Structures are given as C-alpha cells and as structure tokens.
C-alpha cells in the first residue's frame, strides 16, 4: 500500500461522487415524494392518511432490512450492491406513475425501501468513515450540503414538472433520470476502502504515533457493537434517531401544508427548494461546528434552533416572506438527520465497529417512518390542518436535546467501566 503524497486525495473525489448519488436519491425520489401527496390524493380520491401508509410500509421494510444491509456491505462489492439498489429504488419510483390504486404504492414501496437503505442511508456514512479518519464532520457536512445544492434545483423543477406535465409523467421521468445518472457514477468512482486504490485514509498521518500499527489501533478506537447495544447511550441515540426522523419527516408534508394555507404547487416546489438551501447551510455549519465544539453541543443547538420555524408555522404561515424563512431554517434541522446522526454515533461509540452500531441505531429512523409519516397524514385527514402536528414537533425538539445530554452521560459510564478503548 502506498502513501498519498499529493495534496489532492482521491477521498475527496469519492466524497463528491457519493454526495451526488445520495443527493439525487434523496431529492429526486425520497424528499420529492412529498410534492406528489396532494396531486395524487386529489386525482385518485385517496385519503392523505391512507396514501401516506406507503411510507409506513417502506419504513417497516427498512427496519427489517437494516441489520442485513450492514452485513451485505461488508461481504459484497459495494458497486454491485449500489447498482442493484438504485435500480430497485428509482425503478419502483417510476412505476408509481403507472398506478391507479393505492395498493400500487404499497407494493412498490417495498423494493424502493430496500434500495433506499443503501443509497440514502448506509453508503454515505460508511464510506466516509472508511475514507476519512480526520475531518469526518466536514466530510459529512459537505455530503449533506451538496445534497442541499441539488435539492434547491430539483425540488422546484419537480414542482413545475408536476404542474405542467402531471404527476404520472413526473414520477416516470424522475425515476429514469436518477438511475441513468447514478449508475455511471457508482461504476467510475465508488470504492469501499482506500486500500482498493492503494491509498490510506485522509488524516491517517495525523493520528499516527510511532508506526502504522499504532495508527491502526488509534483509528479503530471505540466500543464493540455488543457492548454498545446494551448501553444507555445507545438507547438514547436510538431515541434521538427516532425523534429527529419524525421531525424531519414533516418535510414530506410541507407541500400539502403549504397548499393547505393557501399556496399552490409551484410555490410549494419553490419552498422545498428553499428548504434545501437551509440543508446546504445547515450541513456545512453543523459539520464545522461539530469539529469545533463537538457533536453534543452542535446537536443541542440544532434542536433548539428548530423551535423557530415551528413557531412561525403556527403563528404566521400566510406571510410568504416569513414562511420562506421558516422553511430555510427547517432545512437546517433536516440536514441534522444526515450530519448529526453519524457524527453522534462516532462521538459516542468511536469507529471500532461503527457500521454495525450505526445500522442498528438507524432502525430508529425506520420506526419513526412507520409512525410519523402516516400519522401526520391522518391528523391532516381528520382535522383538516397540521396544527397538532406542529405542537408535537416543538415537544419532540426539546425531548431530543435532552436525549443528547443523556447519551453522553451514558458514554461517561462506559469510559469509567473501561469499555471505551
């Protein structure tokens, strides 16, 4: 294995490739799905709660498959896994355009969820953890920020496409476009480890002491998965994942929320694009802040910041300027799902068995999807507004700040017991 002598490290090229893959998967398919809720339910006469159950089915599949995903990534060629995944994810999304019954969404949400696990959840954090032994916060922040750039373009584009060409054409065109772009990126640029390119991870020289073996020990510092899963810190992290996902899931309902307070689908698309600007700024800010003041303080700050857009949505949703301000700030909170989740996992448990711990804790993401997404839909269906949902978001933001504090108290217990090494 050769050392990287040049200033430019291949890891940064891989980071760009991974970021584009995750960005297109999330913004072209996952997040964009919220723009289809109102037009599909209105066109087909489906209740919002019944329709959003397909998110719940996808979350159940995710919860079941996540533990398997970590093992598959460790066993098989990452490029093969990701190519199959994007075909499942984008292909299923395109198939929605041919459906006339809610059962079509229920059926195709299954393969879509399996593909999404690897494309939007697992690949980014695992690959960054492999390639970056220093500057993880910056790398993850950049990944989510690049997603924000793409989202700021994709969301308004999809909104206009739905308005001008209809939701069926938009589903099909989006699914095909995402697959056509991502597959070559995977083949050309994605590699699981630096060793496959004859390189060392970014920052390896900064953690070396006297020789390579000591560096390996340093970079593998942390807690084993078997110990972590029994700790209070893990349960607090699981709760954090559950709640932050529940909060971020409201982004799927922002389009119908905006239309419910008097805006049209084009404005809703523009609003979701503005949210992605917030994702961009938030990801960069939280990544840098995490490196400067730690993941704990950054996470607490992010949760308290989230109270601002909730207050605006509750009090002056009809004010376009403030609505956009709230949307941008809410994008900060959405970005924390992609940045703070992985960074908190590393801060709490190290990287000794990161992928096993993260994939298990991330089940909290899936559990939240089972409950929150259709739950918000049913609240809207039964009450005609999202008011109760917004109050629930405020409570969850405060609870999550408390969970972060509890998680790091749990880490101190592990350190005192000599289990963190």
TrEMBL record:
State if Secreted is listed as a keyword: no
Highest taxon in the source lineage:
Bacteria
What keywords tag this UniProt record? Membrane, Transmembrane, Transmembrane helix, Transport
Compartments (UniProt record):
Cell membrane
The membrane-spanning stretches of this chain are 12-38, 44-68, 80-99, 105-128, 140-163, 169-190, 233-255, 267-286, 298-316, 322-345, 357-376, 388-408
Q: Which InterPro entries match?
A: MFS, MFS_dom, MFS_trans_sf, Proton-linked_MCT
Pfam families linked: MFS_1 (PF07690)
Does the keyword Lyase belong to this entry?
A: no
What is this entry's stated membrane topology?
Multi-pass membrane protein
**Domain Major facilitator superfamily (MFS) profile, first and last residues per copy:** 11-412
Checking PANTHER family in the record gives:
EG:103B4.3 PROTEIN-RELATED (PTHR11360:SF284), MONOCARBOXYLATE TRANSPORTER (PTHR11360)
Protein name in UniProt: MFS transporter
């Amino acid at each position: 294995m050769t050392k990287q002598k040049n200033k430019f490290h291949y890891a940064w090229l891989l980071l760009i490739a991974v970021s584009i893959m995750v960005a297109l998967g999330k913004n072209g398919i996952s997040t964009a799905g919220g723009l289809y809720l109102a037009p599909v339910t209105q066109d087909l006469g489906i209740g919002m709660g019944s329709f959003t159950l397909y998110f719940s089915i996808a979350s159940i599949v995710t919860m079941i498959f996540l533990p398997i995903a970590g093992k598959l990534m460790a066993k098989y060629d990452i490029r093969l896994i990701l190519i199959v995944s994007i075909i499942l994810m984008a292909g299923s999304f395109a198939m929605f355009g041919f459906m006339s019954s809610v059962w079509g969404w229920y059926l195709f949400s299954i393969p879509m969820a399996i593909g999404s696990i690897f494309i939007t959840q697992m690949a980014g954090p695992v690959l960054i953890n492999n390639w970056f032994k220093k500057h993880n916060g910056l790398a993850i922040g950049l990944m989510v920020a690049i997603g924000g750039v793409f989202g700021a373009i994709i969301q308004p584009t999809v909104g206009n496409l739905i308005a001008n060409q209809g939701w069926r054409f938009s589903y099909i065109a989006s699914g095909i476009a995402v697959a056509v772009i991502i597959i070559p990126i995977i083949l050309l640029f994605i590699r699981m480890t630096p060793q496959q390119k004859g390189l060392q991870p970014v920052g390896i020289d900064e953690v070396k002491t006297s020789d390579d073996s000591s560096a390996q020990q340093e970079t593998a510092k942390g807690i084993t998965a078997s110990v972590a899963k029994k700790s209070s810190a893990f349960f607090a992290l699981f709760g954090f994942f559950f709640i932050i996902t529940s909060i971020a899931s409201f982004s799927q309902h922002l389009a119908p929320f905006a239309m419910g307070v008097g805006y049209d689908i084009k404005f809703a698309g523009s609003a979701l694009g503005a949210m992605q600007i917030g994702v961009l700024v938030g990801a960069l800010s939280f990544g840098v802040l995490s490196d400067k003041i730690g993941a704990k303080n950054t996470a607490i700050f992010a949760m308290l910041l989230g109270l601002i857009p909730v207050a605006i949505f509750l009090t002056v949703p009809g004010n376009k300027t403030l609505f956009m301000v709230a949307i941008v700030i809410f994008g900060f909170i959405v970005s924390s799902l992609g940045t703070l989740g992985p960074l908190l996992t590393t801060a709490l448990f190290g990287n000794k068995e990161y992928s096993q711990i993260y994939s298990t804790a991330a089940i909290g993401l899936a559990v939240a999807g089972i409950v929150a997404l259709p739950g918000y839909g049913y609240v809207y269906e039964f009450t005609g507004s999202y008011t109760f949902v917004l109050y629930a978001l405020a409570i969850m933001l405060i609870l999550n700040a408390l969970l972060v504090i509890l998680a790091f108290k749990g880490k101190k217990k592990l350190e005192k017991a000599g289990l963190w090494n």
